[in-house]
Design brief:
With 371 residues, this protein is mainly α. The protein has 18 helices and no strands. The protein is globular and about 50 Å long. The relative contact order is 0.18.
């Protein structure tokens, strides 16, 4: 996960700008975000099903091979519509591998250490997001956006090959043979997990409506350069990394719910913070707030895995994210339409939705179950 992320993050945050450079309109960029959410929804449950049936290692290798096809399509795309085809393959790794890694952490650790396990995973996953956008921004500033993205894709293909070699050396659980249907997996959901899912959907509507337009807002409206934007992304992710371990320790003392509430509040406030400042210094504080969105993420993920039955673990995670992602699929497209009204509109709307999601979680998720 670390190696592939090290490559993907060289260019991933710049894709909306890359689409724009290839002639895509703001609405098309919004549609790309919606397509990303659609594939995120479509692939989650199949990813969990394959992880439970094929075994973790075989599933990881298959997902990585599909992603490599997507990188090649991105690399040789002559026009922006081809990026939608590439996205269909790239998202196999980004999405199908997610239930697999959740299940792998659940397999490897006792329940009381799940939050700490997700903390370590989150740190390792986000180190590339601190390093790579800085490097990607410098490369694009030196050779241009399009050429810089293609250089990043070539590096990603090399690192994906290294990741495949490492995966071949891992000993992971083999597949299961049960025939539980999707409806049976849904019926196995703990009631608290269903309530968490409902509030999570609202929060991700907030995120999906604004996040894909942040790069356009800060570069087109606030006049921030691409290298500066890369620096802001690094600051955001460094903030996340620094708060992971302390937040895990706090969760052990006071329970998971307060940290999840803090995370949801940061999701609501981040788009407003980006919108209200047009200076690089001000945006540093906004992106620090964006990094604080991760303060309760290991706790939320530990809740999901903790409530899942062991034989259905990967499928439970997959179904959770299938429902969540399918529910938020229109968010980026709606954000693009709101942008046409005024660039600030999707950010304000997202903030209001985020506050509603925070309140929903605080009022409906039982503290004892969350802890």
């Amino acid at each position: 996960m670390f190696l592939v992320g090290l490559g993907e993050e060289l260019w991933k945050k710049f894709l909306p700008k890359y689409l724009e450079s290839l002639g895509a309109s703001v609405a098309a960029v919004g549609l790309f975000g919606t397509a990303e959410d659609f594939f995120d929804a479509l692939y989650q449950y199949p990813g969990g099903w394959l992880a439970d049936r094929w075994g973790r290692r075989r599933a990881f290798l298959a997902f990585l091979a599909a992603a490599a096809v997507g990188y090649l399509i991105y690399l040789f795309s002559p026009a922006w519509p081809y990026l939608f085809l590439g996205l269909a393959f790239v998202m196999v790794w980004q999405t199908m591998a997610s239930p697999t890694i959740f299940a792998t952490i659940g397999d490897a650790l006792p329940k009381e250490r799940h939050a700490l396990g997700f903390t370590l995973y989150s740190v390792l996953k986000r180190i590339p997001v601190v390093i790579s956008p800085l490097i990607g921004g410098v490369i694009m500033g030196a050779v241009g956006l399009a050429r810089g993205v293609r250089i990043g894709l070539l590096i990603t293909l090399v690192l994906a090959g290294c990741a495949a070699a490492l995966l071949l050396s891992l000993r992971l659980p083999v597949g299961a043979s049960d025939t539980v249907r999707m409806s049976g997996v849904w019926n196995s959901f703990h009631p608290t997990l269903k309530r968490l899912l409902a509030s999570d959907i609202v929060i991700r509507l907030c995120e999906g409506m604004a996040d894909i337009f942040v790069v356009l807002y800060v570069t087109n409206i606030s006049r921030i350069t691409l290298p500066e934007y890369g620096s802001l992304i690094a600051i955001q992710l460094l903030t996340s990394i620094l708060i992971y371990v302390p937040s895990a320790k706090v969760a052990e003392r006071i329970g998971k719910k307060p940290l999840v509430i803090a995370t949801f509040l940061c999701f609501a406030l981040y788009p407003v913070a980006v919108m209200l400042t047009h200076s690089f210094t001000g945006l540093i504080f906004a992106f620090i707030l964006g990094g604080l969105r991760e303060i309760g993420e290991p706790s939320r993920k530990a809740m999901i895995v903790g409530f899942a039955q062991q034989p259905l673990r990967a499928r439970t995670v997959g179904l959770y994210y299938l429902v969540r992602s399918l529910s938020i699929t229109p968010a980026s497209l709606i954000g693009g339409l709101l942008w046409k009204v005024r660039p600030e509109t999707p950010f304000i709307t997202a903030a209001v939705i985020g506050l509603v999601g925070t309140l929903l979680f605080a009022l409906t998720v039982d503290e004892q179950a969350a802890a």
